[in-house]
Write a structure and sequence with these properties.
By secondary structure, the chain is mostly helical. The protein contains 32 helices and no strands. The chain has helices at residues 3-16, 51-66, 69-83, 86-96, 102-115, 120-132, 136-148, 155-164, 169-182, 187-199, 203-214, 221-234, 237-250, 255-267, 271-285, 289-301, 305-312, 323-335, 339-347, 355-368, 372-385, 390-403, 407-420, 425-437, 441-454, 459-472, 476-489, 494-506, 510-523, 527-539, 543-556, 561-569.
Length: 593
């Protein structure tokens, strides 16, 4: 989805209020995070028990009162299964909500839904659980079940959320089309289907669907908002504006139509024409900084710098100015060539969210303007103001200068930072890695040993030294000991798992190598790890699996030197040549050449 549309969705949420569909909002009555008994609102279950069943339920009740909600949920669930009781399954679900165990919550909610198929609450809860884990087909299926029962399935709201979250669209389109085929009069379902169709690229079909719907539900404001949204995404700004105008006539107090109209005018270049809608929005919601930021970003997407700046400047008078304001104002000033003003804005972002981004923007701006000395001074001044960020700021400066073809300036910056903080392990690490990149391997290893001597628990230094030993020498035992120490400190680090796997491979233990390399690849599927894993798989005779890894690495990046090196020694792992238009690989040309 284009950036401006995501921002508009955020603005719309601010204007209309956002109804969460996750499990954090209660789908069942009586759920509360307060100190009151969370089971208080559950239905009574006091009849029909034998002695064992009554004992089990009482123990579950006592466990819930003590705060042992897992035991309570499991006890109620067992009793629910024994008596096939929806009321007990509901109590199990209410208790499970307090365990932070999604699997247990899903099990209890499923049982509740099984025993009370007409009850909407378990379906809503199961849909929320599916949303939280990103299972959009399952979430939609639960919402469709509600809609089939005549309940409010909130299908359009779910469609918007799924599209914004980057869900895979074709399966959802198929589900919706199947549903509307048997429920053609469900307007919410028709609109949700149109949203999914448009998101999947079938904009004409989506708009035709909405046109047919308008013949019956012309007075439905949500229909016109949906038409406007789809038209905006498709770049049909005239249709978006006319749809928004019609919707505003039906619902004059719904600010989302003002937003859609403003979007359409800004996107079509009618900046002046959008001012009226922007002014009305601000008059209604002027206390919302997020709205000003979102609207300013819409102006920036249309290269309208001046109105964007006007929207943002009043936010500087707030005690809690959002960091995004400084970032946007800095970007506006930079785009306008006012580099020193941009620098002032970037520097005002306090430590916390946006701090590193703002300094990186400032450094890149100065280097891009060939103000190399200013960039180095900026790093040093900001490091004095924020000493805990010295290593990070220096690394940003080094990377930016290297990318700009200024390695000497990068070296000078690192040297100056080390003069100010000679024992900083991160700076020493950066220096060592620069030496390694320049072929000074022995010097790099000496520097790494110094870092480890000062801090024996520096996992990155242990791993770097161990991996270097394993790849440049045959001192595999020493390398293994170092990387094992790093692994004990950071057992889930993909880089360390890769080193450990590669050392196992060098020592001849291919099975252990594959285990560790598979873990590394799952956490960090870059081309270096891919090359190691593919080589280990090939050595184990698993050529097809190795070739799959190689193909994925080749398709994920334009540059893959480690894979290229692997293919020189293992050409059998190279993908087959692509077929020509006749469907045959490397078919000769018609002329025989």
């Amino acid at each position: 989805m284009p950036t401006r549309l995501l921002l508009a969705a955020g603005c719309a949420a601010l204007l209309a209020g956002c109804q969460s569909m996750s499990t954090s909002s209660s789908a069942a009555e009586g759920m509360s995070a307060s100190g009151h008994d969370p089971m208080a609102s559950a239905p009574p279950v006091t009849q029909g028990f034998d002695a064992d069943g009554l004992s089990q339920v009482l123990l579950s009740e006592l466990a819930g009162q003590r705060g042992d909600f897992r035991r309570a949920a499991e006890g109620y669930l067992a009793a629910a299964d024994r008596y096939r009781s929806a009321a007990l399954a509901q109590r199990a679900t209410l208790a499970a909500r307090y365990t932070d165990d999604t699997s247990l919550l899903q099990t209890t909610a499923n049982r509740w839904q099984q025993f009370a198929p007409e009850d909407s609450a378990p379906q809503e809860l199961l849909s929320g659980i599916a949303v939280d884990r990103g299972d959009w087909p399952a979430a939609l299926q639960h919402r469709l079940a509600l809609a089939a029962q005549g309940q409010n399935g909130q299908l359009l709201a779910l469609a918007d959320l799924a599209i914004e979250s980057g869900a895979e669209i074709p399966p959802l389109v198929a589900q919706m089309r199947q549903f509307v085929a048997s429920h053609p009069d469900n307007a919410d379902a028709q609109m949700a289907t149109a949203r999914f169709e448009a998101a999947g690229g079938d904009v004409d079909r989506a708009q035709r669907r909405l046109t047919r719907l308008a013949a019956r539900y012309r007075q439905l404001p949500e229909l016109w908002l949906t038409r406007a949204q789809i038209a905006l995404e498709a770049g049909d700004y005239a249709l978006a504006a006319s749809s928004a105008e019609h919707g505003r006539e039906l619902a004059p107090d719904d600010s989302r139509f003002l937003l859609a109209l403003a979007q359409a005018k800004i996107a079509s270049g009618d900046i002046a024409g959008a001012e009226q809608q922007i002014d009305q929005l601000l008059a209604r919601h002027d206390d919302t900084p997020g709205l000003r930021i979102g609207l300013a970003q819409l102006y920036l997407n249309a290269d309208a710098l001046a109105p964007a700046r006007r929207l943002l400047l009043p936010l500087l008078d707030r005690d809690d100015t959002p960091p995004t304001v400084y970032l946007l104002l800095g970007s506006i000033a930079e785009t306008g060539g006012e580099l020193d003003n941009a620098l002032l804005y970037y520097r005002q972002v306090p430590t916390g969210p946006g701090f590193i981004e703002s300094r990186a923007l400032a450094i890149r701006m100065l280097v891009g303007a060939e103000r190399i000395e200013d960039a180095s001074q900026f790093v040093q001044i900001e490091s004095l103001r924020h000493p805990t960020q010295r290593a990070t700021l220096t690394q940003i400066g080094i990377d930016t200068l290297d990318d700009a073809g200024k390695p000497r300036a990068a070296d000078a910056l690192l040297t100056e930072s080390l003069n100010q903080s000679p024992d900083d392990a991160q700076l020493l690490y950066a220096q060592a890695m620069r030496n390694f990149a320049r072929g000074k391997v022995d010097l790099m290893m000496t520097q790494m040993r110094r870092i480890i001597a000062d801090n024996p628990k520096d996992a990155e230094a242990l791993n770097a030294l161990g991996y270097t030993l394993a790849t440049t020498t045959e001192r595999y035992d020493e390398a293994f000991d170092l990387v094992e120490r790093a692994h004990a400190l950071k057992p889930d680090s993909p880089a360390i798992l890769d080193s450990l796997g590669w050392i196992h491979f060098k020592r001849g233990d291919v099975q252990a190598a594959i285990r560790y390399l598979q873990q590394a690849y799952a956490g960090q599927p870059d081309q270096e790890v891919a090359a190691h894993l593919a080589e280990a798989l090939a050595a184990d005779g698993r050529t097809d699996q190795a070739r799959t890894i190689v193909n994925a690495a080749l398709g994920s990046a334009d540059s893959h030197p480690d894979i290229d090196k692997l293919l020189t020694s293992h050409p059998e792992l190279a993908p087959p040549p692509a077929p020509d238009s006749t469907g045959r690989p490397d078919a000769p040309s018609p002329t025989g050449q």
